[in-house]
Amino acid sequence: MKNIQRFVISFLVSLILLPFTIFAEDLQGPFELHDNDRVVLLGNSLFERELRHGYIELALTTRWHDRNITVRNLGWTGDTVFGEARGYFTTPPDAYGHLIEQLTNAKPTVVFVAYGGVEAYEGEDGLPRFSEGLHKLLDKIEELNAEAVLLSPIPKFPTDITESFATDHNQIVEKYSETISGIADKRGVRFIDIFSPLMEIEDGQKLTTNGIHLNETGYIYLAGTIESALNLTPREWSVSIDLYNGQTYSKGVSIADFEHRENEIQFKAKDEWLPLPRSEGIPDIETHSISVSGLEEGRYTLTIDAGYEKTATASEWEDGVEIYYGTTCTQAGLLKNRIVRKNNLFFNQYRPQNRTYITGFRSYEQGQNVSELHQLDELIEREEREIFKIRQPNTNVYRLVKSR
Fold it and tell me: Which residue ranges make up each domain of the chain?
């Protein structure tokens, strides 16, 4: 009888826990953005300094380039979960009220939250208050029917001046990262650990401007780290051609109109997504290689759209030759520049330099100029239309010819 009772209790408990188990497993699956999603980057300088680079937005939106996805960067240097850096001498709302107002006005469906780096200066004693503030912020994100994705803080990298401080401080930062991870588990939201991957980089200070803030190389690496943590398909690009049986194989790119004539191969290729750029000092985020078996002996030159060239021997092509991704990289650069331009427009709209006179307690002097801020909507939308066009991969013509 007791065994039966235990079985029944165990069965009932398993039924109760089943939805939570499935939900937890779902969080480990690939992340996805949908049509008309509005992504908000909310946090401290980690996100504000991304305004000048745009690699996180480039990485996320190129994954689903055929979907209408917009991104708003609400990063604010020195900010905390209580919005303490956003306050200024004005009438209500207070600093936290400004944070919530800005978040609400952005109408998010997905919010990447990056806090804890500033709060870590309070040491372990600050953890309870930080936890309380993060829960409160997540409550608001839920109220807005948006999905939250939590990021850990980044470590401090030692320099000649800050070596001992960085070592001690990173122990505290790691505790804040663990706290954020625990909150993510408790609330059933995604957590991205960027602390550990950055700590594993040799000479990690090369990813920063001063051991504290990421430089362009650091943001390229950060974008790739976020993609990996979201379980997105690795950015691999490869083409393999077997001339013995006339077959082509590809990954990350679709091949069409393949032609093979004497000492010449030609095909069209369309990438699944535009690439992230490469940069020295960080692991390759993606690889691009072409291999061709069955070529006669000699040297062969690959051209892409009659522009990029790469020459190698038949045996080298059979082993696989790494290539620079040509016009798609140029296209990604144009996209990055458009994203930065759009970010600057939005920054000037939601954070005008003279906001005290336009929206604050002295708006009786220049408040009529608030209409000019609304006029920026049209310019921002124009940039987003161009961004949508540019992030669509073009079709490129590849031609491999025996060198004369």
Answer: 35-229, 234-404
